[in-house]
């Protein structure tokens, strides 16, 4: 009988277990929210950075490159290269862009701020070829394993943006820019800090609302325990 009474009393003599379970649950919720927040912030930051890279390439093409290119640029005319070089020099010196390239439709690089690339020919990707048929500005994370990106390696991950431009005679060319992926990291950090602030504040508010209920429950458990002990 004594053992039976101890077994009846034991489960209610540890209300601290309830507090521990609630604390563990709160920690698990915080960890899950943190992981989800990091992933969501990274994806959103990359999406925004890709859009920014596309907008930068679009503005640079319209305001700087398109007005100065000549019909002799595709043929490698030194004067045409110097004119484009002069137009881009000041901008490239004060911007975060890593590389600029101008391609022909058959994959020939007719201009780049990296002179070793000029005159080389590579296979354009399907997406790059698509912008000739359907003019648009596109951006994506660069594949630095491609042979045409050999001089961009060693600078971390990059974002590339490209769009068509035209010579005065209407010959289509592909204008391409490369920008650092570090902008994604910086923006992801900003988004995560905002997300973390909202999440932690919400959890603290939830805990503040939950504590009175938990305290009331523990008080009732203790009262019930004392009553059972007296009855036993």
Task: Give an account of the 3D structure.
By secondary structure, the protein is an alpha+beta fold. Helix content is 58%, strand content 13%. A hairpin with a 5-residue loop joins strand 1 (99-103) and strand 2 (109-112). The chain has helices at residues 2-9, 16-68, 78-93, 126-133, 182-231, and strands at residues 99-103, 109-112, 138-141, 158-166, 172-180. A five-stranded antiparallel sheet has the order 2-1-5-4-3, sandwiched between helices.
Briefly say what this structure is.
The chain has about 230 residues and is α+β, with helices and mostly antiparallel strands. Helices cover about 60% and strands about 15% of the residues. The chain has helices spanning about 1-10, 15-70, 80-95, 125-135, 180-230, and strands spanning about 100-105, 110, 140, 160-165, 170-180.
Considering the chains and any ligands shown, give keywords for the structure.
alpha+beta; five-stranded antiparallel sheet; 5 strands; rod-shaped
